[in-house]
Amino acid sequence: DTAVSQTPKYLVTQMGNDKSIKCEQNLGHDTMYWYKQDSKKFLKIMFSYNNKELIINETVPNRFSPKSPDKAHLNLHINSLELGDSAVYFCASSQRGSPNTQYFGPGTRLTVL
Amino acid sequence: ILNVEQSPQSLHVQEGDSTNFTCSFPSSNFYALHWYRWETAKSPEALFVMTLNGDEKKKGRISATLNTKEGYSYLYIKGSQPEDSATYLCAFASFNRDDKIIFGKGTRLHILP
C-alpha cells in the first residue's frame, strides 16, 4: 500500500506544453504539499493545501496552479512549460496539529525539451 | 525570514567511523525539529521529530539531540556503514498558522569503503 503516490514518475515534454502531475495520499492526512527539488538538489516548498484550502503559496510563477478536488488529492498543473521547469517535483502530506511530520511521494522527474 | 542552516554541506567518512553534523534554527517560536534521510533517487523519509528542549532520539546507530534555547540539533551516526550514505535534512517548524516547515539544505554524507 503506497502512502503517497505520484503520477507520472517521469514526464518528458516540449516547451510551451501544458501538463499535470497527480498526487494522492491514503494516510488520512488533511494537509498536502508540493515541493520542487531545484538544480542544486535543494527542496523548496511551492504550495500547501489544508482540507482543500490553499494555505501556502510561495513565490511561484502563476503558470503553476495546484488543484485539490478533495483532501486526499493535490494535483499540480503547469501551463506553458519552460526549460527552467525541469526538476523533480515531490508531493507530501501531513496531519495538521501533530509535529507535522511530512510523508513524501516518490517524486516526478519533469524534463522540458 | 526563517533560516535553517546545516553543516557541513558534505562529509566523507570512512566505513566504521562515527560522525555527526549540525542543524541550526531560530530559537524563538519553536514547535518541532525534524530530521529526514534522503537517499539518491528516492524521496525523503522521516527519521526523528523532537519537540522538547533536551530531547534525545535514537534509531539503531543513529541518534539526535535537541537544544531549543540555543537553536541547534546534532545528528550522530555511530559506526558508519555504506547504507548510511544519503543526504540528511533537518526541518524546523514554528508556531505558525500555515504549518510550513523550513528545510535546511542538507548534509550529504558519503561513506567510504
Task: Outline the structure in words.
- The complex is a heterodimer of chains A (113) and B (113).
- With 113 residues, chain A is mainly beta.
- In chain A, 0% of the residues lie in helices and 56% in strands.
- In chain A, the strands form 2 sheets. In chain A, strands 2, 4, 5, 6, 9, 10 and 11 form a 7-stranded mixed beta sheet that branches.
- The model of chain A has no long low-confidence stretch (mean pLDDT 90).
- With 113 residues, chain B is mainly β.
- Helices cover 0% and strands 56% of the residues of chain B.
- In chain B, strands 2, 4, 5, 9, 10 and 11 form a 6-stranded mixed beta sheet that branches. Chain B has a 5-stranded antiparallel beta sheet with strand order 1-3-8-7-6, with no helix packed on it.
- Chain B is globular, with a radius of gyration of 14 Å.
- Chains A and B meet through strand 5 and strand 10 of A and strand 4, strand 5 and strand 9 of B.
Keywords:
heterodimer, A: 113 residues, mainly beta, seven-stranded mixed β-sheet, 11 strands, globular, B: 113 residues, six-stranded mixed β-sheet, five-stranded antiparallel β-sheet, 56% strand
Task: Summarize the model shown.
By secondary structure, chain A is mainly beta. Chain A has strands at about 5, 10-15, 20-25, 30-35, 45-50, 55, 65-70, 75-80, 85-95, 105, 110.
User: For the residues shown, what is the average pLDDT of chain A?
Assistant: 90
What's the main sheet of chain B like?
6 strands, mixed
Radius of gyration computed on alpha carbons of chain B: 14 Å
SS element count, helices of chain A? 0
How many distinct helices of chain B?
0
Bin the helical content of chain A. under 10%
Dominant shape of chain B: globular
Question: What structural class do helix, strand and pairing data of chain A support?
Answer: mainly beta
**Unreliable sequence segments of chain B:** none
Count of beta strands of chain A: 11
Q: Which percent range describes the beta-strand content of chain A?
A: over 45%
